[in-house]
């Protein structure tokens, strides 16, 4: 898939899930509540626990998507910016790859859950 299109598609999925009520926790670790800070350069997104984890908590999680700082800041932007400005940013290819992976796994996990609920 074209890289720009892949980014647009990933942004769309993350924002759509947020609109549906699936808003991941990104300001602090989803387990121990340690705050994320500006000087950090590696971030860990837990698919099963819906949010960012600190390095210590991430060690125990097999469903981690690694994010560099650019990807993490892009994720904050995607979840919080004005809808009209949603697609108005660019990131390097390594961040597109990370955001794309995150959006794919996160969407799969959320839709799978929805499906299980509907089966009952
Ligand atoms: Zn933690």
Principal-axes shape call: globular
Measure the end-to-end span: 36 Å
User: Percentage of helical residues?
Assistant: 40-55%
Q: Biggest β-sheet: count, sense, barrel?
A: 3 strands, antiparallel
CA radius of gyration: 14 Å
Small molecules held by this entry = zinc ion
Extended strand count = 3
Structural class, by secondary structure, is mainly alpha
Number of domains: 1
Key phrases:
binds zinc ion; mainly alpha; single chain; three-stranded antiparallel beta sheet; 3 strands; 4 helices
Question: How are the elements arranged and paired?
Answer:
Elements: H1 3-19, E1 42-46, E2 51-53, H2 55-58, E3 64-68, H3 69-80, H4 93-119
Antiparallel strand pairs: 1-2, 1-3
Structure description:
This protein has 120 residues and is mainly alpha-helical. The protein has one domain. The protein has four helices and three strands, in the order αββαβαα. It has helices at residues 3-19, 55-58, 69-80, 93-119; strands at residues 42-46, 51-53, 64-68. A three-stranded antiparallel beta sheet has the order 2-1-3. Helix 1 runs parallel beside helix 4 (93-119) and helix 3 (69-80) packs across helix 4 (93-119). The model has no long low-confidence stretch (mean pLDDT 93). Zinc ion is lined by residues 29, 31-32, 34, 53-54, 56-57.
């Amino acid at each position: 898939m074209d890289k720009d299109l892949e980014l647009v598609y990933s942004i769309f999925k993350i924002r759509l899930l947020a609109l549906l009520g699936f808003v991941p926790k990104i300001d602090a670790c989803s387990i121990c509540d340690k705050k994320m800070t500006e000087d950090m350069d590696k971030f860990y997104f837990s698919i099963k626990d819906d949010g960012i984890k600190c390095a210590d908590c991430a060690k125990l999680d097999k469903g981690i998507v690694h994010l560099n700082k650019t990807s993490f800041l892009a994720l904050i932007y995607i979840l919080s910016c004005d809808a009209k400005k949603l697609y108005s940013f660019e990131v390097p290819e390594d961040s597109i790859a990370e955001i794309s992976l995150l959006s794919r796994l996160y969407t799969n996990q959320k839709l799978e859950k929805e499906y299980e609920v509907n089966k009952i």
